[in-house]
Design a protein that fits this description.
heterodimer; A: about 350 residues; MetI-like fold; 15 helices; about 75% helix; about 0% strand; B: about 550 residues; alpha+beta; D-Maltodextrin-Binding Protein, domain 2; Dipeptide-binding Protein, domain 3; 2 domains; globular
Chain lengths: ~350, ~550
């Protein structure tokens, strides 16, 4: 059985290779199809024809597309993602600095979302059409229909501007602190590693408002999915059989029903996580968060080829990994998976 | 139904509030007030992408590094603009690294005497060889630095000569009034060549890779740390000799992309200075008793409408004048600029009475006159022309476009709005020059009207996105550009240029924009520089 599972995982890994290559080709072609000429953009305000040409040659944009693609692949094999023109740094550096920032925020946001949504969904499923179910429904509707920039600004307005409880929304750490030495790139974890609780507190305080905004956004699909799959599970034959056999209500709900309900939930969590990671540009902008989303948007606006390609590639790798993890979790949660193969 | 959901949103918010609050209770740390006295905190909307202004791709916000970390030979004086506003004065050239200079060889060259005790951050003396290396670099690297040096008549390393350790000669070949002011712009900075030369490679003879991340200069501020996309921290160089030692020992420039967040930060007092706020916020903050707003016009800069002469109806000057009479100037100024700036319409006299630039054009909104002119030109049934705007400047261009569209409709011209992303704008508007009707903004760093006309009204020049061609304008600019402003013909020539620009009207000025900076009441020393960046050397805090 273990052997089966490993084989399944290896098969999934192999499948990821053509996906990644496809992403590589498509992102390369799409960036070239973007309107705008990066050479003109980066030659600067006063540049004349000659200096634009100079910049174009320097960027290698005067070469043919296949040549550019091969050069890009060659660089990739050497671990080089190229140079971002908008930020002036190598794309590798940018991703190394920004991906942990986004991950830290997204993970905390998702965690807060799960912490609220799953109990809420379970309660709503256990007591359908009571006040708790209505509350769940209202929260889901509100969460899904409040645009993220609005909830972001609103939370900032109330908790920073009016009440002054939250620290100033200027990014990952207030400037009076130095960021902890880079180990994981997560400031909270890195601070704990060196035992600096002051910095941990400061970094965590910075995280709270943006993470709450993301949690509000993540809440809706997760709570809804928990509720509906729990209702299905609770009404199913095996739960009824368990009840007839005198198995306690606690056991029925949290083991029999919840374990089965968690499968579709996992899929949704995976989707929500991906959405939050790539799509939280607005939260990043409002809270000055130096994350990967705002980096990608700025790169797109400037037709910054290397940066866009690097972003797309990293996100593709991340999604493939995420799907893989979810598939593996599936095999753990669903006893049928391994045996059927 | 609506009411219900609102109540529940509130519930939801309160729920989160309680959660956040309970966590925050033990967490909020009070910033240490004492360490803030000598530190200036600036929040800016754009981020610095290089510490080397000469590098290809260096963006405008990065110019502040050249201003604060490096010295030039000379600088501009500072004048009062009234209401406590200060502005750089391009008519007054003052010493920076050079203590004095003289014009030699019949005004075709300058000799600069460098301050003898000026040092770089590493303690080595600043010598004429460093100046030469830096200037050679600016004219050799290509791109923006080379173009800007050329604007002052400097294009080849042979024009720079080391006389002795502290004497440096700049040879123009012919007298040129633009050379000296061009040495005060951020480009001709003095780099520590001894350090830079240690980091050159065969592919990179000017150490662009090294200086991109590691400044090597002798300016009033040094780099404490730079976290791209997050913040730049300056610390004072206490051995600076080229001016009064700055008051602030540490300056933090933090990137805060959202303007609402910048406004909240400065209103709460967590930031000392907020940059790049929208005109609407600036206008509102002007009445905030806790804050100080500096708003003054940017020299030699216009927000304008360009009419492309290659587009058939615009080839006819009558059509261009008709458009100039059709624009709703006052409304645009109120809605798009929130009344901040200097109106550039409705001058009483039809001919220019002074050589001041920018000055209002004599056009004002007059739909009947516009209709009559269109009929005269044979376009009584109107035509259709796309009105292009740059999305990077949507803040003022979007409302302006809508107002213009409405008024052009009144004279039978259909103007669908064409929104162009910033990245393609340069190519389409300035390089291909293919936009028929478009909004534009151009400012010349050197504050001379002839310099403006050189860039914006001569055939083939970058900012002549209108494809305007006029022989008289060309010969006038050619003779006037290098002429001293004291020459008797200077003012006559400039007035004639303004009259040609007015009658031919390839470009319709709307208003002269302002540079707005919001700061705490206890912050002083802000100067509106032509390069639009903060010169932090003059700041102080009570």
């Amino acid at each position: 059985m273990l052997y089966d599972k490993i084989q399944l995982i290896i098969k999934r890994l192999m499948l990821a290779v053509p996906t990644l290559f496809g992403v590589l080709v498509i992102s390369f072609c799409l960036t070239r199809a973007l309107p705008g000429d990066p050479a003109v953009y980066f030659a600067g305000a006063m540049a004349d024809e000659a200096s634009i040409q100079q910049v174009r040659e320097k960027l290698g944009l005067d070469r043919s597309l296949p040549y550019q693609f091969l050069a890009y692949c060659n660089n990739l094999l050497n671990g080089e993602l190229g140079q971002s023109l908008t930020t002036g740094q190598s794309v590798t550096y940018e991703i190394k600095a920004r991906l942990p920032a986004s991950l830290e925020l997204t993970l905390l946001g998702l965690f807060m979302g799960l912490l609220t949504a799953i109990p809420l969904g379970i309660l709503a499923a256990l007591k359908p059409n009571t006040w708790i179910d209505h509350l769940c429904r209202v929260l889901v509707t509100a969460g899904a229909s409040t645009p993220i920039f609005f909830s972001g600004l609103f939370l900032m307005f109330v908790f920073y501007y009016l009440l002054g409880w939250s620290p100033s929304p200027i990014g990952r750490l207030d400037f009076i602190y130095l960021e902890p030495p880079h180990v994981t790139g997560f400031y909270t974890i890195d601070a704990l590693i060196i035992g600096d609780y002051e910095v941990f507190k400061a970094a965590f305080a910075q995280l709270l408002l943006p993470a709450s905004t993301l949690a509000l956004c993540a809440l809706a699909p997760i709570a809804r999915m928990t509720r509906s799959s729990m209702i299905t599970a609770l009404e199913s034959e095996y739960v009824k059989a368990a009840k007839a056999n005198g198995i306690s209500a606690k056991m029925r709900v949290y083991v029999y029903a919840l374990q089965n309900a968690s499968l579709p939930l996992l899929t949704v969590i995976g989707l929500v996580f991906g959405f939050l990671l790539g799509g939280n540009v607005l939260v990043e902008k409002v809270y000055s968060w130096p994350g990967i989303g705002s980096f990608a948007i700025d790169a797109l606006v400037a037709s910054d080829y290397a940066a866009i390609q690097g972003f797309v590639l990293i996100m593709a790798v991340l999604f493939v990994t995420l799907n893989l993890i979810i598939d593996i979790l599936y095999t753990l949660f669903d006893p049928r998976m391994g045996r059927n193969e | 139904m609506e009411k219900k959901s609102k109540v529940n949103i509130l519930k939801q918010m309160t729920g989160y509030g309680l959660f956040t609050m309970s966590l925050l209770g033990g967490l909020t740390t009070n910033a240490n007030a004492n360490s803030r006295d000598e530190t200036l905190v600036i929040v800016s909307g754009t981020s610095i992408n290089s510490l080397d202004i000469h590098r290809a791709g260096t963006n405008r916000p990065s110019y502040q590094v050249a201003v604060n970390m490096y010295d030039r030979l000379v600088s501009f004086g500072i004048k009062s603009e009234g209401e406590g506003n200060l502005k750089s004065d391009s008519t007054q050239i003052i010493p920076e690294l050079a203590t004095h200079w003289e014009s030699v060889d019949d005004g075709t060259a300058y000799i600069f005497h460098l301050r003898e005790d000026a040092t770089f951050w590493d303690g080595t003396l600043v010598t004429a060889a460093d100046v030469k290396w830096s200037f050679d670099r600016a004219v050799s690297l290509g791109g923006f630095p080379t173009v800007q040096m050329k604007a002052g008549g400097l294009s080849s390393p042979e024009q720079f000569e080391v006389i002795d350790e502290h004497t440096f000669k700049v040879i123009m070949g012919e007298a040129n009034k633009l050379t000296l002011p061009d040495l005060a712009v951020p480009i001709p900075i003095v780099i520590n060549s001894k350090v830079a030369l240690q980091h050159i490679t065969k592919d990179d003879p000017w150490a662009t890779e090294y200086l991109h991340k590691t400044p090597a200069g002798g300016g009033a501020y040094m780099l404490e740390r730079w976290m791209p996309g997050q913040q730049l921290i300056y610390k004072r160089f206490d051995g600076w000799k080229n001016g009064d030692l700055p008051a602030m020992s540490r300056v933090i420039v933090r990137d805060v992309p959202s303007s609402s967040t910048r406004r909240a930060l400065v209103e709460r007092g967590d930031a000392d200075v907020a940059l790049d706020l929208p005109s609407k916020d600036v206008k509102e903050l002007m009445s905030n008793p806790k804050l100080k707003v500096s708003s003054s016009t940017i020299d030699n800069t216009l927000h304008a409408i360009g009419l492309n002469l290659n587009f058939e109806p615009f080839g006819n000057p009558k059509v261009r004048q008709a458009i100039a009479y059709a624009l709703p100037y006052q409304q645009i100024f109120d809605v798009a600029a929130y009344g901040l700036g200097k109106p550039m319409w409705g001058r009483e006299s039809s001919k220019a009475e002074s050589a001041v630039w920018p000055q209002p054009f004599p056009y004002k909104t007059n739909i009947d006159k516009a209709k009559a002119l269109l009929t005269e030109a044979g376009y009584e049934n109107g035509f259709s022309v796309p009105l292009s705007m740059n999305l990077d400047f949507a803040q003022w261009m979007e409302p302006t476009a809508l107002l213009i569209q409405e008024n052009l409709g009144k004279i039978g011209i259909d103007a669908p709005i064409n929104k162009i992303p910033g990245a393609s704008w340069r190519t389409k508007a300035l390089v291909e020059k293919g936009l028929e009707l478009h909004m534009k903004n151009f400012g010349g760093w050197l504050n001379y009207p002839d310099y403006y006309f050189f860039w914006a009204y001569l055939d083939g020049h970058l900012f002549n996105s209108m494809n305007f061609h006029n022989d008289e304008m060309k010969s006038l600019v050619d003779v006037t550009l290098k002429m001293s402003v004291d020459a008797p013909e200077y003012s006559t020539n400039v007035k004639r240029m303004i009259d040609i620009a007015t009658d031919e009207v390839p470009m319709i000025p709307l208003w002269q924009p302002t540079l707005d900076v919001v700061m705490q009441k206890n912050v002083s020393g802000y100067v509106n520089w032509f390069h639009r960046q903060l010169d932090i050397r003059s700041f102080s805090k009570e």
